[in-house]
């Protein structure tokens, strides 16, 4: 993958986030904010903005920067369909190989170059993104280490049971305080998802919207340790859920339940919202557990790669 492809990849990911509703029309697109969001430097962000401006998806205002244009959803879908779907293939291939035991726990960039035939710059981009999403870390001195993820049915169940313990409890904390801005923004995103064409939006963006909903609500507990714990387990389960096919009916059910929780919170019924949150997570565990079982069967058919030297 050429370094010059990076702005194109960033532009696609930004379009995906706009299509998913996590970035909305009229929103200011700060270069540093986007660089942090996508784990890159400001230079490819500026180049990506130029690409999107030429396509009419962002507009530049003098002395103010770039803003998301009010784009026809059909036009956005057509643009995403025209772009090659392989832009994220290498990232997902690395994730899949780690999930299914094909890679050793510790690797070097040279090992990955030999294993996949990727360029040095592309390997770095992939690893930086993986580190930002929480399943890879740089070793002290030399090399990279893959971090534990939910790659067994037992781990998947344990994560959801842990969430059932902390998320409802967070709403009952003495320090819990409603944030109307958070509630309004999450309602906008969830209602927007019900109106969108799920087939036109990548699974990552849809799943990130779901994780964001839970993380934004738990922030209102006023206890940062609840948020830190939830963010950690969300990273651990993210790769397995990316691997599953998006189910339209499940997404509609998820968004509907999210909106029910928001309605209870908006009315100040935090006790009822806490109970509804536990029901929601319990239902999600029952619906998603087969993903883990199917995955475990896949793992039995592969052998891990030789350790990197």
Give, in order, the helices and strands: HEHHEEHHEHHEEHHHHHH
* Spatial strand order of the main sheet: 1-3-2
Beta-strand segment tally: 6
Number of domains: 3
**Looking at CATH, which topology of the largest domain would you report?**
Four Helix Bundle (Hemerythrin (Met), subunit A)
Classification by helices and strands:
mainly alpha
Largest sheet data: 3 strands, antiparallel
Mean pLDDT: 82
- CA distance, first residue to last residue: 24 Å
Q: In percent terms, what proportion of residues is strand?
A: 5-15%
What is the helix content? 55-70%
What's the CATH superfamily of the largest domain, by name?
Answer: GntR ligand-binding domain-like
Low-confidence blocks of residues:
300-309
Task: Draw up the topology in text.
Layout: H1 6-20, E1 28-29, H2 31-38, H3 42-54, E2 58-61, E3 65-68, H4 73-82, H5 89-99, E4 106-107, H6 109-116, H7 120-132, E5 136-138, E6 144-146, H8 153-170, H9 180-195, H10 203-219, H11 224-243, H12 248-266, H13 270-299
Antiparallel strand pairs: 1-3, 2-3, 4-6, 5-6
Helix pairs in contact: 1-3, 1-4, 2-3, 5-7, 8-11, 8-13, 9-10, 9-12, 10-11, 12-13
Structure description:
With 309 residues, this protein is mainly alpha-helical. The protein folds into three domains: 3-83, Arc Repressor Mutant, subunit A; 87-147, Orthogonal Bundle (Arc Repressor Mutant, subunit A); 153-298, GntR ligand-binding domain-like (Four Helix Bundle (Hemerythrin (Met), subunit A)). Helices cover 64% and strands 6% of the residues. The protein has 13 helices and six strands. The protein has helices at 6-20, 31-38, 42-54, 73-82, 89-99, 109-116, 120-132, 153-170, 180-195, 203-219, 224-243, 248-266, 270-299; strands at residues 28-29, 58-61, 65-68, 106-107, 136-138, 144-146. Strands 1-3-2 form a three-stranded antiparallel beta sheet. A three-stranded antiparallel beta sheet has the order 4-6-5. Strand 5 (136-138) and strand 6 (144-146) form a beta hairpin. Helix 8 runs antiparallel to helix 11. It is globular.
